[in-house]
């Protein structure tokens, strides 16, 4: 999902560039933006369902819904700029729309990261437990080999 959000950000930046250098290509980029948003919306459904809690799922959906409004306005402005590429006011409006979309697209990964805090905590704990298990395995191996100092005549096998 983060990868798709980044792809949207890249496409928006390309639209800014093409608005001044080659407005004829804005239609292709608008179509690409629409496809990327469609993919993000599909990924959002899964992310919201698997979120740590309902509030995080709500925030993820909220920012993706906010993003669609910005994308729709941007596509509309891109179409208007294609119709009149020399209109400075339309160009200014389109660039303002790209800024709004960029701002909104940056909030999507932030919402996802809020949902990953619990997952990250579990990964940290699992790593610590794995380290403890490895230490225990090493201790058992040395004890079975008889290389640990014996305080009395008992063997590890007796205690195992």
Automatic annotation (TrEMBL):
Q: Which GO terms describe its molecular function?
A: actin filament binding; integrin binding
Q: Which GO terms describe its cellular component?
A: cytoplasm; focal adhesion; plasma membrane
- Record organism: Ciccaba nigrolineata
Question: What InterPro entries has UniProt attached to this entry?
Answer: Alpha-catenin/vinculin-like_sf, Vinculin-bd_dom
Q: List the Pfam families.
A: VBS
At the top level of its lineage, which domain of life is listed?
Answer: Eukaryota
Output this protein's name: TLN1 protein
Main subcellular location: cytoplasm
Please state the gene responsible for encoding this protein: Tln1_0
Q: Where is the Vinculin-binding site-containing domain?
A: 1-117
Q: Which GO terms describe its biological process?
A: actin cytoskeleton organization; cell-cell adhesion
Q: Could you tell me the keywords of this UniProt record?
A: Cytoplasm
Q: Which compartments is it annotated to reside in?
A: Cytoplasm
């Amino acid at each position: 999902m983060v990868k798709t959000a980044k792809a949207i950000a890249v496409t928006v930046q390309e639209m800014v560039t093409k608005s001044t250098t080659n407005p004829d290509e804005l239609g292709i980029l608008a179509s690409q933006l629409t496809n990327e948003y469609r993919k993000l919306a599909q990924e959002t459904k899964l992310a919201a369902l698997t979120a740590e809690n309902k509030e995080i799922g709500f925030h993820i959906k909220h920012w993706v819904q906010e993003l669609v409004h910005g994308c729709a306005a941007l596509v509309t402005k891109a179409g208007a700029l294609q119709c009149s590429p020399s209109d400075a006011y339309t160009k200014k409006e389109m660039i303002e729309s790209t800024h709004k979309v960029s701002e909104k697209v940056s909030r999507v990964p932030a919402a996802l990261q809020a949902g990953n805090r619990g997952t990250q905590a579990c990964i940290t704990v699992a790593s610590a437990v794995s380290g403890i298990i490895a230490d225990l395995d090493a201790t058992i191996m040395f004890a079975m080999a008889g290389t640990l100092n014996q305080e009395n005549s008992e063997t590890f096998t007796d205690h195992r």
